[in-house]
Each structure stands twice: as structure tokens, then as C-alpha cells.
Amino acid sequence: MSRPAYDPDPHAHPGLHVVALVEGAKGLLALLGASGLELVGPVSLLRWVDALIARFQFNPEHGVFAWLQRSINPESLHFAAAAIAAYGLLHLVEAWGLWRARAWASWLGCITASLYLPFEVHALATHPGWLELAVLSINLIVVYVLARDLVRRRR
Fold first, then answer.
1. φ, ψ for residue 3 (rounded to 5)?
2. Domain edges within the chain
3. Residue 97: count of CB within 10 angstroms of its CB
4. Per residue, what are the HEC states of the chain?
5. Which of 3, 48, 63, 102 is the least buried, fewest Cβ under 10 Å from its Cβ?
């Protein structure tokens, strides 16, 4: 009798698959975003920023949009696309590992999700709202599910 190709850990928390799907979606969205940056290119992106400045009457000398105007060039766009693609690939690898109930993926996910928590708490404290609360709650659930998986593995 042959062994099945996928033999999940019988003690793995069922939430791992849910977290894996979320991480996979984040990874795919990041890869789409990186591809979009490369396809659009710096000239079109600069035109969009100029149109936003004109449409909403932002100050073209100061602020985020002025900084964007000065920062967008082919090299910075390629660097941003590469960084976003690396972020996406990391999430896809993590999603694969979580789907396969690998301990390293739970460690990776728990550490990376925990890194966002201070920023999310700060965002909730400075700009309280339902969106900030929802993001923090979801991230706390992800950390809980992954930490619970790691604790179960230690037993």
C-alpha cells in the first residue's frame, strides 16, 4: 500500500489552512502589484501623480505627492517592484508551508505577523476606527493560531 502524497499533521490546528489562504492571497496581490508597477512604468505613474495633484489641488511643492514626483524614476520603480515581488514570494512560501503544516512556516508567520502589531496598535490609538480595529483583530487571531500550533508541537 502506497503512502499518500500529502499526509497532514493530525495535530495541526485547522486554522492553519485559513491562515495559509490569507497569506497566499496577500502574496498573489503583492506579485500582481509588482507586475503592475513594471507594466505601468515611471512615465505613466508620474502622469497619474500629476493628475491627482491637479485634480485635488494639492501643493506640488510639499507633501506626499510632491515627494512622489521627485522620487519616481526608472531605478526606484524597479527597486520598489522587486521589493514588493520579494514580499509576495515570501508570503507564498509561507502559505505553502502553512498548508503543509510545516513548523518553520508557523514560526515565520508568527514572527512576521507579530512585527506588525506595534504599528497596528499605534494606528488604532492615533486614528481609532473600525478598519484599524479589524486589522488588529485579524492579525491577533493569526498570531494566536500560529502560536497555538507551535505550542502544540512542543508537547
1. -85, 140
2. 14-101, 102-155
3. 20
4. CCCCCCCCCCCCCCHHHHHHHHHHHHHHHHHHHHHHHHHHHHHHHHHHHHHHHHHHCCCCCCCHHHHHHHHCCHHHHHHHHHHHHHHHHHHHHHHHHHHCCCHHHHHHHHHHHHHHHHHHHHHHHHCCCHHHHHHHHHHHHHHHHHHHHHHHHHC
5. 3
* pTM recorded for the entire structure: 0.79
Residues 6+ apart with CB under 8 A from 69: 46, 49, 50, 53, 60
> For 40-86, how does the pLDDT look when each residue is reduced to its tens digit (9 = 90+)?
998 988 898 888 888 888 887 888 888 888 888 889 999 999 999 99
